[in-house]
Amino acid sequence: MKFKIKTGDDVIVTAGKDKGKRGKVTKVLRAQSRVVVQGANLATKHQKPTQASTGGIVRQEASLHISNVAIVDPTDSKPARVGYRFNDAGVKERFSKRSGAVIS
Protein backbone atom coordinates (compact mmCIF):
# COMPACT_ATOMS: atom_id res chain seq x y z
CA MET A 1 0.00 0.00 0.00
CA LYS A 2 1.25 3.49 -0.85
CA PHE A 3 1.47 5.89 2.10
CA LYS A 4 1.50 9.64 1.66
CA ILE A 5 3.27 10.18 5.00
CA LYS A 6 7.02 9.63 5.03
CA THR A 7 9.82 9.65 7.61
CA GLY A 8 10.75 13.22 8.56
CA ASP A 9 7.34 14.74 7.80
CA ASP A 10 5.83 17.21 10.26
CA VAL A 11 2.45 15.80 11.33
CA ILE A 12 -0.38 16.52 13.75
CA VAL A 13 -2.26 13.84 15.70
CA THR A 14 -5.97 13.98 14.76
CA ALA A 15 -7.42 11.34 17.12
CA GLY A 16 -6.69 9.65 20.44
CA LYS A 17 -5.30 10.77 23.77
CA ASP A 18 -2.63 12.95 22.12
CA LYS A 19 -5.01 14.74 19.73
CA GLY A 20 -3.57 18.09 18.67
CA LYS A 21 0.08 17.25 19.36
CA ARG A 22 2.61 17.94 16.63
CA GLY A 23 5.86 16.16 15.87
CA LYS A 24 8.10 14.61 13.27
CA VAL A 25 7.62 11.09 11.96
CA THR A 26 10.60 9.02 13.09
CA LYS A 27 9.54 5.67 11.67
CA VAL A 28 6.93 4.28 9.25
CA LEU A 29 5.83 0.68 9.89
CA ARG A 30 4.37 -0.27 6.51
CA ALA A 31 3.28 -3.83 7.35
CA GLN A 32 1.14 -2.62 10.28
CA SER A 33 0.02 0.71 8.69
CA ARG A 34 1.47 2.61 11.65
CA VAL A 35 3.83 5.53 12.29
CA VAL A 36 5.96 6.60 15.25
CA VAL A 37 5.71 10.34 16.00
CA GLN A 38 8.32 12.13 18.09
CA GLY A 39 6.80 13.26 21.42
CA ALA A 40 3.38 11.65 20.88
CA ASN A 41 1.80 8.50 22.35
CA LEU A 42 4.42 8.03 25.06
CA ALA A 43 4.35 4.62 26.75
CA THR A 44 6.08 3.51 29.95
CA LYS A 45 8.42 0.54 29.66
CA HIS A 46 10.25 -1.24 32.46
CA GLN A 47 13.75 -1.98 31.20
CA LYS A 48 16.03 -4.59 32.72
CA PRO A 49 19.56 -3.44 33.55
CA THR A 50 22.29 -4.54 31.16
CA GLN A 51 26.00 -3.87 30.83
CA ALA A 52 25.22 -0.93 28.53
CA SER A 53 22.39 0.71 30.51
CA THR A 54 21.29 0.98 34.12
CA GLY A 55 17.69 0.04 33.38
CA GLY A 56 14.64 1.43 35.17
CA ILE A 57 11.40 2.94 33.95
CA VAL A 58 11.76 4.42 30.46
CA ARG A 59 9.24 6.55 28.50
CA GLN A 60 9.29 5.96 24.76
CA GLU A 61 7.09 6.66 21.75
CA ALA A 62 4.62 3.95 20.75
CA SER A 63 3.21 3.73 17.24
CA LEU A 64 -0.01 5.35 16.05
CA HIS A 65 -2.24 4.18 13.22
CA ILE A 66 -1.48 6.15 10.07
CA SER A 67 -5.13 7.25 9.79
CA ASN A 68 -4.80 9.15 13.10
CA VAL A 69 -2.18 11.59 11.82
CA ALA A 70 -2.27 14.29 9.15
CA ILE A 71 0.48 16.27 7.47
CA VAL A 72 0.84 19.87 8.61
CA ASP A 73 0.26 22.41 5.82
CA PRO A 74 3.47 24.44 5.34
CA THR A 75 1.61 27.74 4.86
CA ASP A 76 -0.88 27.86 7.76
CA SER A 77 0.20 24.98 10.07
CA LYS A 78 -3.17 23.20 9.93
CA PRO A 79 -3.88 19.56 9.02
CA ALA A 80 -3.98 18.89 5.28
CA ARG A 81 -4.43 16.06 2.84
CA VAL A 82 -1.66 15.17 0.40
CA GLY A 83 -1.80 14.90 -3.37
CA TYR A 84 0.70 14.15 -6.12
CA ARG A 85 1.38 16.12 -9.30
CA PHE A 86 4.11 16.67 -11.83
CA ASN A 87 5.84 20.06 -11.85
CA ASP A 88 7.00 21.96 -14.97
CA ALA A 89 10.25 19.97 -15.09
CA GLY A 90 8.28 16.70 -15.15
CA VAL A 91 9.29 15.68 -11.62
CA LYS A 92 6.64 14.12 -9.37
CA GLU A 93 6.04 16.09 -6.16
CA ARG A 94 3.78 15.97 -3.12
CA PHE A 95 1.55 18.97 -2.46
CA SER A 96 -0.95 20.09 0.14
CA LYS A 97 -4.52 19.92 -1.11
CA ARG A 98 -5.40 22.68 1.37
CA SER A 99 -3.15 25.39 -0.02
CA GLY A 100 -1.42 23.88 -3.05
CA ALA A 101 2.02 24.34 -1.46
CA VAL A 102 4.73 21.80 -2.20
CA ILE A 103 5.63 19.44 0.66
CA SER A 104 9.33 18.67 0.66
What is the spatial order of strands in the main beta sheet?
A: 6-3-2-1-7-8
Low-confidence spans: none
Task: Write down the overall geometry.
Answer: elongated
Helical residue percent? under 10%
Number of strands: 11
CATH architecture call of one domain? Roll
Provide the succession of SSEs: EEEEEEEEEEE
* CATH class type of one domain: Mainly Beta
Biggest sheet details = 6 strands, antiparallel
Question: How much β-strand is present in the residues?
Answer: over 45%
Helix-strand category: mainly beta
Alpha-carbon distance between the two ends: 21 Å
Q: Number of helical segments? A: 0
As a whole number of angstroms, the C-alpha radius of gyration is 17 Å
Can you characterise this structure?
- The chain is mainly β and 104 residues long.
- It has a domain at 10-74: Roll (SH3 type barrels).
- It has strands spanning 10-13, 22-29, 34-37, 42-47, 56-61, 63-65, 69-72, 79-80, 82-86, 92-96, 102-103.
- Strands 6-3-2-1-7-8 form a six-stranded antiparallel beta sheet, with no helix packed on it. The chain has a three-stranded antiparallel beta sheet with strand order 9-10-11, with no helix packed on it. It has a two-stranded antiparallel sheet with strand order 4-5.
- It is elongated.
- It starts with 9 loop residues before the first strand and ends with a strand.
